[in-house]
Amino acid sequence: MNHTWNKYKYILNDEFMQLIFIKASDVLRESGEHMIDIHSHIIFGIDDGPSNIEQSVEMVGKAEKAGVRTIVATPHSHDKLFGSDRIFENYQEILYRIRDFGVTLKLGYEVFIHPAVSGMVKASRGLTLDSGSCLLFEVPFNCTLAEGYSIILNFHLESITPIIAHLERNRNFLKNNKDIGKYVKAGCMIQIDMASIIGVYGRGVKDFAKILLKYGLVSFVASNAHCAEDYEKWYLAAYREVVKWIGEESANRLFLGNAESILNKEAIIQAV
Ligand SMILES: [Fe+2]
Questions:
Q1: The pTM of the whole model exceeds 0.90
Q2: Ligand 1 center from residue 39 Cα (angstroms)
Q3: What φ, ψ does residue 67 adopt, rounded to 5°?
């Protein structure tokens, strides 16, 4: 996407050649090109995502049509599902069915944290995105921000970088937004949902998402898709909205560049 164009624009000085690449870049942008989605409930029969293999395959197809080329499957994970064989078996079944698709599927989890969950931090080692060092987790509403913060500090002791899933939908953060900087300074990254950007959760959540983006506090925008229709209706619309809010270069970092970095096990630019 944009990084490809940047590579060429410094190599090519010829005006005509630059025009060709600008046009190609525009076409790719319109088609979505090469997004990486780090949060998707695409594995059937596990959580509130698809209930059968056909629905999972349909989700992959719609994601591909929206321009997504890599999806990290992130089934909800709590005590009962840690290391569940069923997740891995269903994931393997999807991999086989989509072998001819233009989408790469990887495995991670969306971890539901709570201070009362014993061994959470150690157990989280096996739940990171694509077995890397980043863990996607959700701070539940009944978990105070102080409790969440102490858990984050413990993740660091295990060399895990925490990514807070859809922070914009957590009313504790909305009410105590000064604490967000504290989390980010502690090395926490923030992911927001495409549906929040479109306004599916109401004006308040949309405005909060916009503020987080404009202040450069967000590292990823992801689908958090639970069905094929989610990708079809919201993914590209969210991308276009984010481009309007913060510009194409920053939007590309949040829909592709930062995700690419963590999947390549590289450091990312923390803020926009
Ligand atoms: Fe989710």
A1: no
A2: 6
A3: 105, 5
Instruction: Determine the distance separating the centroid of ligand 1 and the alpha carbon of 48, expressed in angstroms.
Output: 9
- pLDDT category at 235 given cuts 50, 70, 90 is very high
pLDDT attached to residue 123:
63
Q: Can you name the CATH fold of 32-263?
A: TIM Barrel (3.20.20)
- Between the CA of 141 and the centroid of ligand 1 the distance, in Å, is 14
Per-residue pLDDT of 256-271, as tens digits, reads 999 999 999 877 655 4
**Residue 40 C-alpha to ligand 1 middle, in angstroms?**
6
- Name the residue ranges covered by the structural domains of the chain: 32-263
- 165 CA to middle of ligand 1, Å? 7
